[in-house]
Automatic annotation (TrEMBL):
Keywords: Signal. This is DUF992 domain-containing protein. It holds the Pfam family DUF992. Residues 1-22 form the signal peptide.
Length: 163
């Protein structure tokens, strides 16, 4: 009886874990963004907003082009000149990617102004509309600081997708 009770508990726990496994995030592609030539300083001297042009290359799908804005809060790194910023796009492993899947606003996963309690930038930007999608900076190991480290908000709008 004790052995059958253990099996029943193990089976129940296994079934409870299935939804969590189905919702696991995986790398679904790469988002490469180029900053516009000039940006604006917000009222906060450590804030900056820039227009961006992005290409999303999903794994196993057609490339999509997005436009939008990027906002930096904090003085870690300036968004000066024309820069290229690259993110790994994380999404649910159990969903098929649909056109315009990235069209939403992404914010730092820390509360408040996008900075964590220790004043560091967020590790990833999470979708506001569909939290299942997130952008994780791909760091350039040759640089101590990467411009993606200071980004706290990205707003993306689909510009074009293949028909």
């Amino acid at each position: 009886m004790e052995a059958s009770m253990r099996w029943a508990i193990a089976a129940t726990l296994g079934l409870l874990a299935l939804p969590a496994l189905a919702a696991m995030q995986t790398d679904v592609g790469v988002l490469t963004c180029t900053l516009a030539d000039h940006g604006e300083k917000d009222t906060n001297p450590d804030s900056q907003t820039r227009a961006i042009h992005c290409a999303f290359k999903p794994k196993g799908g057609p490339e999509e082009v997005y436009v939008g804005e990027i906002k930096k809060v904090g003085s870690q790194t300036e968004l000066n000149g024309t820069q290229v910023l690259i993110w790994a796009v994380m999404g649910p492993s159990d969903r098929k990617l649909k056109p315009a899947v990235l069209e939403q606003t992404y914010v730092g996963d820390a509360a408040g102004d996008g900075l964590s309690a220790d004043g560091k930038p967020p590790k990833q930007l999470v979708g506001e509309t569909d939290k299942a999608y997130a952008l994780q900076p791909i760091a350039d190991e040759s640089k101590e600081r990467n411009a993606t480290d200071s980004v706290t908000v990205i707003q993306l709008r689909l510009k074009s997708t293949p028909t």
